[in-house]
Amino acid sequence: MIDTIEVVDFVSFTITIILLFIGKFVLSRSRVLQKYSLPEPVIGGFICTLVVALVYYLFGKEIQFNLQVRDILLLYFFAGIGLKADIDSLLNGGKPLMVLLLLASVYIVLQNVLGISVATLFGFDPKAGLMTGSISLIGGVGTTVAWAPTFIDDLGIANAMELGIAANTLGLISACVIGGPIAAYLMKRHAISANTAHDLDIGMAHTSKKDISVDYFGVLRAWLWLNVSLIIGYFLDLSLEAAGLKLPMFVACLIGGIVLGNLGRWILTKLRSEEFNTYAEDAEKGLSLIQDICLGMFLTMALMSLKLWELQGSVGYLAVVMSAQVLLSIVFTVWVVFRAMGKDYEAAVMCAGFGGVTLGSTATAIVNMTAVTQQYGAAHKAFIILPLVCGFFIDVVNALVINYFVTW
């Protein structure tokens, strides 16, 4: 009999901070981890995952963390992405955005075909392979939970939920690991230079020696704009749902941030006030700080909640199908996405993110890109295009493709 140890929200939050410190400390001392741009939260979060698994196997106790704040951290992060997104940059990124969306759509189909093929090879119901395809990988836990009843009740696949959760767990871990090496390989293979001329969108470069001062009121202003963006996102989400369109809440907050940020910049331009411009610069520094913390803690919490013992069922099938999915992600990203997106530094950073989202989530993609830019320099276009494609359009395409395969 497995006993459950419930860790209350305040203690879980405190443990998350400690784990993030551990990740940052280990990364700062390891040239190898920096070279391959392993995200800081992955280190501390995965250490916690291993400890929890050991407690489960050695002492028969399951540790469950209360992580209700996790989803709020993600909302703050994407609202910050929106606040920084200049509408002119979005318009200029129209063609690359459409190209990446097309590639992502093609990849969703390939990912499901691969899942179905491996399931058939193992003598399973072919549609069981969809649970180890875009449902659990690109779709994530939310999509897995939403589709599982259909597979269990209508298609008679009794272990659909277990397959989906296990695939999502392995995919999330893989997504955190492959992004940095993909970018490092592409930059070395194509002799791409680092971009150190501009400030990073999120975080601080590993080689940075300067202290970045953050004004008290700058942080407070950033926090205020983030909260207003979340409020706009909340009402936008209600409006979209009333119109019959259901999208992830963070997408609405991203749009809310875009609206508020561009409106604010337009007002500052009209005022032409140096004092207001100084306020805006201080707020942007505060925004970067809050974003960095929120994203790091979100991914740390995501890894803390993984239950490795749930991977025990259908080990052979999972090993083969997930190895194939990781290989497909790497090959498609390196040979197709990189070339289609321009074969430059921005493309290499986007590839790190694309490798993350194809196996994990949009948050994993951003963490991968953040780790790469901390090593090689800023990539502003990548931080605009990829979140919009992976956080907004890809969910719609994924839902349509899944529905086609399920009813086929």
Averaging pLDDT over every residue, what do you get?
A: 83
Assembly classification: single chain
Question: Judging from the principal axes of the Cα atoms, what is the shape?
Answer: globular
Described by strand count, sense and barrel closure, the largest sheet is: 2 strands, parallel
Strand content: under 5%
Number of helices: 15
Number of strands: 2
Which regions contain 5 or more consecutive residues with pLDDT less than 50?
Answer: 204-209
Radius of gyration: 21 Å
Order of helices and strands: EHHHEHHHHHHHHHHHH
What topology, given as strand order, has the largest sheet?
Answer: 1-2
Structural category: mainly alpha
Short note summarizing the structure:
Helices cover 75% and strands 2% of the residues.
Provide tags for this entry:
globular, mainly alpha, 408 residues, 15 helices, two-stranded parallel sheet
Provide structural commentary.
- The chain is an all-alpha fold and 408 residues long.
- Helices cover 75% and strands 2% of the residues.
- It is built from 15 helices and 2 strands.
- It has helices at residues 9-28, 31-35, 40-59, 70-84, 87-92, 94-121, 140-154, 160-189, 216-242, 249-271, 274-304, 315-340, 345-359, 362-376, 380-407; strands spanning 3-7, 61-65.
- Strands 1-2 form a two-stranded parallel sheet.
- Helix 4 (70-84) runs parallel beside helix 10 (249-271).
- The longest helix has 31 residues, at 274-304.
- The radius of gyration is 21 Å and the shape is globular.
- The two termini are 42 Å apart.
- The model is unreliable at 204-209 (pLDDT under 50).
